[in-house]
Design brief:
By secondary structure, the chain is an alpha/beta fold. The protein is built from eight helices and nine strands. This is Large ribosomal subunit protein uL1.
Amino acid sequence: MAKRGKGYQESLKLIDKDALYTPSEAMDLVLKTAKAKFDETVELSVRLGVDPRHADQQVRGTVVLPNGTGKTVRALVFAKGDKAKEAEAAGADYVGAEEYIEKIQKENWFEFDVVVATPDMMGLVGRLGRVLGPKGLMPNPKSGTVTFDVTKAISEIKAGKVEYRVDKTAIVHVPIGKKSFGNEKLAQNYVALMEALIKAKPAAAKGQYLKSVSLSSTMGPGVKINPAKVVE
C-alpha cells in the first residue's frame, strides 16, 4: 500500500475510525480534512444489501442534484433534423450523426462526458457499443439518455444530473459536489441522492439495505455515517 502524505495522516487524527457519525457531523469532518490545494470533489459511497449478480437486485437510476456537481459537463447528442436543432438550442456541446461515429472510431475522440441519442439513432450508435460501453458512456433509456425529449435530457444534464449504479461489489459511488460548495449545498445534494437510493430499493432485496455509508473528499479519508440515521 502506498504511504500516505503528512496531510492525510493529520486528517486521520480528526476522525474516530470506529465511530458512526450523523450526516452533518460527517460533512463537517470531510470539509475539515479536504486539505489539498485544489477544489476537491466530495463523494458518497454506499454499500447495499443486494446481490448485483441477480437482475432483480440491480440498483440504477439518476437524480438531479439541487446544486449540481460543480463540473462542466460536455454533452454529445446523436440526432438528425428537427431533433438536432432542438439539441443545439438546448445547449448540447456536440450534435450530429455519422460524422461523430467516424470521429470516435477513427480518431479515438472522447471530448465529451455524456452521450444522448434519439431512439431512431440507436441502430447507428450501437456501432460504438464496444468503445462507449466500457467507459460508461453508452446511451440508455433507464438513465434518460435515449429519448426524443432532448431538451429535457440536456437541461437536466447541465443542471447536475448524476447516474448512480451499484457495482459488482454492491457499492454505489457518486460525487455530490465540490469542497467549495460548503456544508449547506453539499448537504442538500447528499439528501437528494440518499433519498433516491432508498426509493430505488429492489423488492427482491432482503435484510438490511444500507450496509455502510461514508463520505470522503478526493484526497481525504472516508468518514462513516450511521446507516440508521442517513437522513436527519
